[in-house]
Amino acid sequence: MPLPKFDYLEPKTVQEAADLLAEHGEEARIFAGGTDLLVLMRERVIRPKYLIDIKGIEELCELSHDEEKGIKIGAAVTLNQLIESDVVRERFGALWNAANSIADPTLRNRATLVGNICNASPAADSAPALLIYDAEVEVASKRGERTIPVQEFFTGVKHTSLKRGEVVKAVRVPNPPRGARGDYLKWGRTRGEDLAVVGVAALAANSGKIVRVALSSVFKTPVRVFEVEKIFEKGGPTNERIDEAVSAVLNRISPISDVRGGKEYRMHMTEVLTRRALSKLLGVGGD
Ligand SMILES: Cc1cc2nc3c(=O)[nH]c(=O)nc-3n(C[C@H](O)[C@H](O)[C@H](O)COP(=O)(O)OP(=O)(O)OC[C@H]3O[C@@H](n4cnc5c(N)ncnc54)[C@H](O)[C@@H]3O)c2cc1C
Fold it and tell me: Which residue has the CA at smallest separation from atom 20 of ligand 1?
């Protein structure tokens, strides 16, 4: 089916984009890679009259690293650009693996990290990594600017805490604790392109006293399980603590059954992947 008709708008500054959003309200959508947006338009799920393309805004193309502030990922930065970054690969392993797990290289040439989180699918692969790294979302509108902690960004299936007229400028990811190792394990129906049945991002540092876990596809939003952190704060990594952490994760999630997998299967694969990720990062146990 052809795309419905729309007007294509090409602002050159964030201010212009925010002005266009304010002017056209619900009739306009921000257009980044378009890999979610155009699918929904083709299927007539949404019919925006205006698409505001932000890829020509220079400020939004920034991908940079600062020893104090961490990385800044502009809203127009593609997933492939993120994957090509040495600092992301070396210091933000969970984010790098997550970006690599999204679709295929052709799609990642257009798709952005910011589009991935704004689409707010519970299956968004980049979200668990951003949750364990305590990322922040920088937002602008006609009313001014604000920063939203990523922990408060996802509010429901396909819903975010973005207010009407707000455009995301960038995601900031602070440097992880010194010596931290991170991973993202994704379980799909096939080895090829597919959304996750379950995705687990994990981070370990400080001889296993700092441990964080967040998941995709097993709750109404991507979810970080803070209970896991309290378990490892008590002492170093042991098999018993990994068991406790797995139980905490299973108590927190609430998966649905859909075409990708039943609720029971998701619970089982969550257990397998959480244990696998923690065992690997902590060097204890294993399946
Ligand atoms: C074949 C295929 C395979 C896929 N596989 C995966 C996968 O494995 N894992 C996965 O997580 N996703 C997958 N996706 C979904 C999609 O590719 C990703 O979510 C992608 O990162 C979206 O980025 P985008 O730049 O294309 O977003 P767009 O489609 O441009 O935008 C998505 C939504 O976010 C809004 N938006 C975008 N940027 C901003 C901004 N700066 N401010 C405010 N709102 C904004 C748009 O208005 C729109 O509502 C797949 C999609 C397809 C078509």
Answer: 116
58-173: CATH number: 3.30.465.10
Query: What confidence tens digit (pLDDT) does each residue in 111-163 have?
Result: 999 999 999 999 999 999 999 999 999 999 999 999 999 999 999 999 999 99
Residue 188 confidence (pLDDT)? 87
Q: pTM, whole model, 2 decimals?
A: 0.97
Q: CATH for 182-282, among 3.40.50.150, 3.30.390.50, 3.40.50.2000, 3.40.1160.10?
A: 3.30.390.50
pLDDT in tens, 150-164: 999 999 999 999 999
Atom of ligand 1 nearest to the CA of 123: 11
Whether 112 and 75 have beta carbons less than 8 Å apart is answered as yes
Q: Tell how far the Cα of 179 is from the centroid of ligand 1, in angstroms.
A: 32
Distance 160 CA to ligand 1 centre (A): 14
Q: How far apart are CA 62 and CA 76, in angstroms?
A: 8
The Cα-based distances of 225 to 10, 134, 230, 235, 267 in angstroms read 40, 13, 10, 18, 15
Cα 114 to ligand 1 centroid, rounded to whole Å:
8
| Ligand 1: nearest atom to the Cα of 114 | 38
